C-alpha cells in the first residue's frame, strides 16, 4: 500500500488526502458529482480509493481525463461556445473568466439581462417587492409607531366648574 499523503496538490488546488477520489475531485471548481464519477471511470481509477494514495502517474491520467474529457456533450459545462462553436469543459480560472466575459458581453450589447446585471437587480425574473432589498428596513419604523401609539392630548379648554 502506498503512503498516504495528507495534502495533495492537484490541478492548482490543495485537496485533503484522506478524501475518496470521487469526492476529492469535486473540490476543483467546475467538477461536479457526475463529472467526477465519469472522470474516474475514464482514467480507470476507483472512486473509493483515497486521493492521497494515488501515484503521480495515476494523478496525471486523472488530470488528462478532466482536461480533455471524451464524454457526451450533456456532461460538459460549456456547450456550443460562442467563440469556437465547440463543446468544451472549463475548470478553475477559465470558468470564472468565461462567466465574467459572458456577463460583460450582455452589458455591452445592452440586453435586458445585461441591464439587470448593471443595476444589481435579479436577472431571472424573480419578484423584487420583498426580496433583493438592500439598505432598507422592511416593516414599520419605530418613529411612526411612537407617533401612532402616543395618546392624543385634549385641547386646552377650560374645565367645567363644579357647583
Structural description of this entry:
By secondary structure, the protein is mostly helical. It has a domain at 7-71: Helicase, Ruva Protein, domain 3 (Orthogonal Bundle). It has six helices and two strands. The chain has helices spanning 21-24, 33-43, 56-67, 92-108, 112-119, 142-149; strands at 7-10, 13-16. Strands 1-2 form a two-stranded antiparallel sheet. A hairpin with a 2-residue loop joins strand 1 (7-10) and strand 2. Helix 2 packs across helix 3 (56-67) and helix 4 packs across helix 5 (112-119). The protein is elongated, with a radius of gyration of 30 Å. The N and C termini lie far apart (111 Å). The mean pLDDT is 86.
Computed Rg: 30 Å
Poorly predicted regions = none
Q: What order do the SSEs take from the amino end to the carboxyl end, as H and E?
A: EEHHHHHH
Strand fraction band?
under 5%
Question: Averaging pLDDT over every residue, what do you get?
Answer: 86
Q: Architecture of one domain, CATH level 2?
A: Orthogonal Bundle
Quickly give the structural class: mainly alpha
Number of H/I helices: 6
Q: Could you describe the largest sheet, including whether it forms a barrel? A: 2 strands, antiparallel
How many strand units? 2
Look up the CATH topology of one domain: Helicase, Ruva Protein, domain 3
Distance between the termini: 111 Å
**Percent helix range:** 25-40%
In summary, what is this structure?
The chain has six helices and two strands, in the order E-E-H-H-H-H-H-H.
Amino acid at each position: 500500500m502506498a503512503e498516504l499523503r495528507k495534502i495533495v496538490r492537484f490541478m492548482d488546488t490543495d485537496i485533503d488526502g484522506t478524501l475518496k477520489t470521487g469526492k476529492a475531485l469535486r473540490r476543483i471548481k467546475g467538477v461536479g458529482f457526475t463529472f467526477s464519477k465519469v472522470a474516474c471511470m475514464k482514467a480507470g481509477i476507483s472512486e473509493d480509493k483515497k486521493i492521497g494514495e494515488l501515484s503521480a502517474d495515476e494523478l496525471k491520467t486523472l488530470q488528462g481525463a478532466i482536461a480533455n474529457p471524451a464524454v457526451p456533450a450533456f456532461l460538459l459545462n460549456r456547450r456550443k461556445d460562442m467563440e469556437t462553436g465547440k463543446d468544451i469543459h472549463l475548470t478553475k480560472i477559465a470558468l470564472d473568466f468565461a462567466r465574467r466575459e459572458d456577463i460583460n458581453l450582455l452589458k455591452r450589447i445592452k440586453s435586458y439581462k445585461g441591464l439587470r446585471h448593471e443595476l444589481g437587480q435579479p436577472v431571472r425574473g424573480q419578484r423584487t417587492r420583498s426580496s433583493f432589498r438592500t439598505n432598507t428596513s422592511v416593516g414599520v419604523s419605530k418613529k411612526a409607531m411612537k407617533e401612532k401609539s402616543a395618546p392624543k392630548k385634549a385641547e386646552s379648554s377650560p374645565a367645567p366648574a363644579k357647583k
